[in-house]
Amino acid sequence: MSLDRLIEHCKANDTKAQSELYMLFSSTLFSICLKYSRSYAEAEDNLQDAFITIFKKIGQYKNKGSFEGWLKRITINTALQRYRKQGGIFDIIKDDEIEDETITEDEEDAVSLEYLLQIIQELPNQYRLVFSLYVLDGYSHQEIAEALQINKGTSKSNLARARQILKTKIKAYKPGAHSQSL
User: What is the pLDDT of residues 28-40, one digit of tens each?
Assistant: First the structure.
């Protein structure tokens, strides 16, 4: 069945089509959930919540733009809603406290993808969310500020702190010591 037909069947609440759509996109969307979650179980919860929202709102998809992009946006927003409900998770930091720290390619190459994902998941919520939105999903600081209901300076400072934490953990990384952690 073509994707367009599959979407139309999902709009008609066809459970077989919904199951097929889930099988088609669940692994892609789950990897997004992992970036925004503190644990595997939380990522599973976010994925389930995202698909509930997708099936409720699929009638709003007008076949304009990328369907996968639409799914990803819903998935990210679903994960962010969980943190908005918690409220007050963002530190307010003055712009002059921001350090422009970057992780060099050599440091990135020195760690496994599994370890990198693990240390991203270990970041405090506010740092993990901003880091994932900015670095992994290409959001601007303005878009992050709007999505998380924070100011632009807070987004920049949380990104800088996330990078510093990751840089410290990567420097301390010993190959093989964390490969079985996930």
Answer: 999 999 888 888 8
> Angle formed by the axes of helices 15-35 and 67-86, to 10°?
60
pTM: 0.67
29, 52 Cβ separation under 8 angstroms: no
Is there a contact between 119 and 166 (Cβ–Cβ < 8 Å)?
yes
81-103, pLDDT tens digit by residue? 877 776 544 444 433 343 443 43
- Compute CA distances 53 → 9, 30, 59, 78, 165, whole Å: 16, 15, 11, 8, 33
Q: List CB contacts of 61: < 8 A, sequence separation 6 or more.
A: 7, 11, 67, 70
